[in-house]
Design goal:
This protein has 467 residues and is mostly helical. Helix 2 runs antiparallel to helix 4, helix 13 runs antiparallel to helix 17 and helix 15 packs parallel to helix 17. It is globular.
């Protein structure tokens, strides 16, 4: 009998919510620290006598260092204690980065406004950036390791949306604590002390696996990782069905298994492209709206509404997928794409577009707010579902490998959009977002839907081991 038949004790270990809460808190704070200076741009530039270009560079260190670190994180997750190692590295980097960038606040004004003092800010942001992949890539592996089947999509959604909540928190916390530029050190000190919460939790207790795996997929993941690295001291018997009687695949073999599977690659590319293009579009949103006559304050609140809606949608989709669409993720994706496209077309036609210099749909700021919030809500559905479908299709590859490939494409696409955006007319940016959604929706039609990971729980024929 597999793990699923082991009763509620196997599937309901209460520590799983503690693990998810610690992971999500760390992910949120990593993103909050990354976004801190951009949440109070005027105060930052005044306090450190910094140019707009330097302020933008503080933010851009995040995506710059994401791409080279993702492969390392995916490789780390292929080790038995990889999840714990990722969390230890991430929490030390986040806390260390927050500490380093606070140091210039101790200097007198004439010193902290020099280029030498600002090196501390950039070094702190770079340290924080190194932790980014460590709190995004493991989301599906954490949910598989700790949560039973009926809660897995919900856990993935919560772990994923936590990072976006960092931006939402920054929008609120920064302006509330920084009334004038002299309050900036207090904001940096608050964000530093907040990082001590997950630091203490991870140091005290953050095991990579529960004592009793909550599903056959979790058992298979744990056993394969231990056997791959030369030990069979796992503590549980091998699964019936013989999946783990084959030699577990190495990290590079897992990547090759994903690359040569067309459905897996469609999911990875479609997920990464739509998320990356829309992330780049959000980065250009203030520029887009300002060029169309909206004030920076209005553009900021519209961006805030979009981000909040994305987080809310990410939470809702986990519950929907677990309860109603567990074996219909492709259909769920297509329905989400259709709703997202309708909202983005509505938003685009409410502004000057490639079709007309005047809005084709009469609108005001409130109509724009509703349109962009609905668009964000449905876009928030996409990433968690893609993470789960990618894990199902690529099984028995560890979830960290498929998620690593997805996040790599995501950041590459973001870079591409941010690079190309200045070369495009402003009214083309919405068309690029709509086109990316439409292309990714069309690609998803060609995915061959299989639930290899879920089938393992019901003792169906195991998937063949890659050679």
């Amino acid at each position: 009998m597999g793990v699923q038949g082991g009763g509620e004790a196997a599937a309901g270990e209460g520590r799983r919510w503690y693990i998810l809460a610690v992971f999500s808190t760390l992910s949120c704070l990593q993103c909050l620290d990354w976004f801190t200076f951009s949440s109070v741009p005027d105060a930052t530039m005044h306090y450190f006598d910094m140019s707009t270009a330097m302020l933008d560079l503080l933010l851009n260190w995040g995506p710059i260092f994401f791409l080279p670190v993702v492969p390392l994180v995916s490789w780390l997750l292929s080790w038995p204690r990889g999840l714990r190692w990722c969390m230890l590295c991430a929490v030390l980097l986040v806390s260390g980065g927050a500490l380093v960038r606070w140091i210039p606040c101790l200097f007198p004004e004439q010193v902290r406004q020099t280029a030498g003092a600002q090196v501390f800010l950039h070094f702190g942001q770079i340290i924080n950036a190194l932790a980014g992949p460590m709190v995004v890539t493991p989301v599906s592996q954490l949910s598989c390791s700790w949560f039973p089947e009926k809660e897995r999509a919900t856990a993935t959604s919560i772990a994923y949306l936590a990072n976006g909540l960092g931006v939402v928190t920054g929008f609120v916390l920064g302006p509330q604590l920084v009334r004038n530029f002299l309050d900036l050190p207090f904001l940096l000190l608050v964000t530093l002390f907040l990082t001590f919460i997950p630091l203490a939790c991870v140091l005290l207790h953050f095991p990579p696996f529960p004592g009793c795996p909550p599903s056959d997929a979790a058992q298979a993941l744990k056993t394969s990782l231990f056997k791959l690295h030369g030990t069979d001291q796992v503590g549980e018997p091998l699964l019936d069905g013989g999946l783990l009687e084959e030699k577990p695949m190495s990290f590079l073999a897992g990547i090759w298994h994903c690359i040569k599977n067309p459905s897996v690659m469609i999911v990875i590319v479609a997920a990464g492209v739509q998320a990356g293009v829309l992330a780049g579009w959000v980065g250009c949103l203030a520029q887009l709206l300002s060029a169309l006559g909206y004030t920076p304050q209005q553009a900021g609140w519209l961006g805030f509404a979009y981000t909040v809606a994305v987080c809310f949608g990410s939470f809702c989709v986990g519950v929907i997928a677990d309860r109603f669409m567990a074996r219909h993720l492709k259909l769920l994706l297509l329905l989400i794409f259709a709703a997202s496209l309708c909202c983005f077309v509505w938003f685009s036609l409410s502004l000057p577009s490639i079709f007309s210099s005047d809005p084709l749909i009469p609108s005001d700021i409130y109509v724009i707010l509703i349109a962009i919030s609905l668009a964000g809500y449905f876009v928030g559905f996409l990433a968690p579902v893609f993470f789960e479908l990618g894990a199902e299709l690529s099984f028995p590859v560890p979830e960290g490998t498929s998620a690593g490939l997805l996040t790599f494409v995501f950041n590459f696409s973001t870079f591409a959009v941010l690079f190309v955006a200045p070369l495009l007319p402003t009214n083309w940016l919405n068309a690029v977002a709509v086109g990316a959604l439409a292309a990714c929706a069309a690609a998803t039609l060609f995915v061959r839907e299989r639930y290899l990971r879920r089938d393992q729980a019901y003792h169906s024929d195991p998937p063949p081991s890659p050679r």
